[in-house]
Amino acid sequence: MSQALTLTSLPLFPLSTVLFPGGSLQLRVFEVRYLDMVRKCQAAGAPFGVVALADGSEVRRAGAPAEQLHDVGTLAAIEQLDSPQPGLITLRCRGAQRFRITRRSRLPHGLWVADVEQLPDDVPVAVPQDLQHAAAALAQALASLRERGTLPAPDAQEAELLQDCGWVANRWCELLPLPLALRQQLMALDNPLMRLELVSDVLERTGITR
């Protein structure tokens, strides 16, 4: 097996959400600890790490205990950065590769940085026949969202991706109102087929598919 790729001193952005590979994330950045970080990442063409909060708040408050972070997160590649007014940056990011934190520290001004080991991408696994209902329901859900203007037009690969377990599971995890802990657990799963099986159970329990 090849040695896992590592990144040192990766800046982290702890959030009360989970970013999945291939997913889109919109951010409004106004804290000093993140304004400089995202500008430097944009200038260098480098990603930052998005990690879900296990405890604590997204916004730093005086006297509050330090944030507690989950160990598995996702690299976020900046696709668009705007500064509509001084002290405010809006970002659109795309989820890239997952990573596992091996060492973390918080700098004096509050920014978390970590040494991380990048996790392998999902192995492509075709959606089996007994889970085709999840792929079909996702195609309908995406079409409905596009009719309402909340999603951009599909790219040329979407029809193919709708037959990939990991991609279908990830998109459902973004759409379903799942508890943060469950969403984190699903993102961290290395088996994309198992991830889709668990998502399928949720779809059936909620009546989205039968």
Secondary structure layout:
Elements: E1 6-15, E2 24-29, H1 32-44, E3 48-55, E4 68-69, E5 72-85, E6 88-106, E7 112-118, H2 132-147, H3 158-161, H4 165-175, H5 180-188, H6 192-205
Parallel strand pairs: 1-3
Antiparallel strand pairs: 1-7, 2-6, 3-4, 3-5, 5-6, 6-7
Helix pairs in contact: 4-6
In short:
The protein is α+β, with helices and mostly antiparallel strands and 210 residues long.
Features:
210 residues; alpha+beta; 5-stranded mixed barrel; 6 helices; globular
Number of strands: 7
Broad shape: globular
Give unreliable regions as ranges.
none
Q: How is the quaternary structure best described?
A: single chain
SSE string: EEHEEEEEHHHHH
Alpha plus pi helix count: 6
Structural class: alpha+beta
Percent strand: 25-35%
Biggest sheet overview: 5 strands, mixed, barrel
Task: Give the rounded overall mean pLDDT.
Answer: 91
- Quote the distance from N terminus to C terminus: 41 Å
Q: What is the gyration radius calculated from CA atoms?
A: 18 Å
What strand order characterises the main sheet? 1-3-5-6-7
Helix content: 25-40%
How would you portray this structure in words?
- The protein is an alpha+beta fold.
- 32% of the residues lie in helices and 31% in strands.
- It contains six helices and seven strands.
- Strands 1-3-5-6-7 form a five-stranded mixed barrel.
- A hairpin with a 5-residue loop joins strand 6 (88-106) and strand 7 (112-118).
- The radius of gyration is 18 Å and the shape is globular.
- The model has no long low-confidence stretch (mean pLDDT 91).
